[in-house]
UniProtKB/TrEMBL annotation:
Record's keyword annotation contains Transport: yes
Tagged with keyword Glycoprotein: no
Gene Ontology molecular function, alphabetical: ATP binding; ATP hydrolysis activity
Ranges for domain ABC transporter: 2-234
Pfam families for the chain: ABC_tran
Protein keywords: ATP-binding, Nucleotide-binding, Transport
SMART domains: AAA
UniProt protein name: ABC transporter ATP-binding protein
SUPFAM superfamilies noted in UniProt: P-loop containing nucleoside triphosphate hydrolases
Amino acid sequence: MLQVINILFSYEKTPVLKDISFSVEAGEHVSIIGESGSGKSTLLKLLYGELDANEGQLFWKNTEILGPKHNLVVGYDFMKYVSQEFDLMPFISVAENIGKHLSNFYPDEKQLRIKELLEVVELNDFAPTKVKLLSGGQKQRVALARAIAKEPEILLLDEPFSHIDNFKKQSLRRNLFNYLKERNIACIVASHDKEDVLSYSDKMIVLNNHKIEAINTPEHLFKQPKTPLIASFFGEFNVIDNTIVYAHQVQLVEKSNIKATVKKCYFKGTFFLIEAELNGDLILFKHHKEVEKNKKVCLIIEPQQS
Ligand SMILES: Nc1ncnc2c1ncn2[C@@H]1O[C@H](COP(=O)(O)OP(=O)(O)OP(=O)(O)O)[C@@H](O)[C@H]1O
């Protein structure tokens, strides 16, 4: 189990992280979300022992995680970290990079393991390709495979799919997170993308204003977003009478007392996002077809499903 106890950290004078406490069970998947600059990467670096906390302690089981002030070599065998930089060896092949830390003692087993990992990140066809010839997204997949090669007990991922195109992203997420769950590997993911979180995280940590604003399941935070920041992570929303109302809760109907005037329509694939004026404010709602500009419409607000 990972225990994060009252961490305080600053690069310079102003703290980047304050009063950070949470725990992660073996095999549990946790995501860290927050605006750009809220300290997600910094928190991962502290968890990895790449930075020294000013105050507080970190433990994985009974081992205290210590930063560079106390450790000559950063990192621990039970933990792997994939940063936004990847840190690969450009002049050797994809397969060699993935197998870099695997023992050469059983070469057949090593080759089988590399093949299995290539399948997880869907890079089988690139096994002999030199890493310097790969795209950013392909490099990111090599870094992910290399991080899980020796099956860490806990994996730290910083925006793990940020360079990967939408075609690949969906299947890669399923492959990777299912692989980690099957092997009971705990995982902490810093992400801006709700798709990384909703289906795969057991728990979500929201960072705001240097602190933890909320910790709960993605389902709970989605259904009961306490702040606009939390709601904005999940989608378009309105604040009506001090209540957060997602765009999907507002419905266009034949008759109602809520009357608005349509201002803009945005095509979103399976629906249109419509911006309308309601009592001098703008309101967003979803509708299955386009609605012409300046049309007067009637709306109802559905309660959020519990
Ligand atoms: N090496 C550094 N020295 C000084 N300040 C830093 C350093 N690295 C990050 N910071 C500052 O610390 C704060 C948190 O940065 P961090 O990279 O952890 O945020 P983040 O939430 O991961 O952002 P993003 O989502 O954009 O990756 C920011 O204000 C950033 O400018």
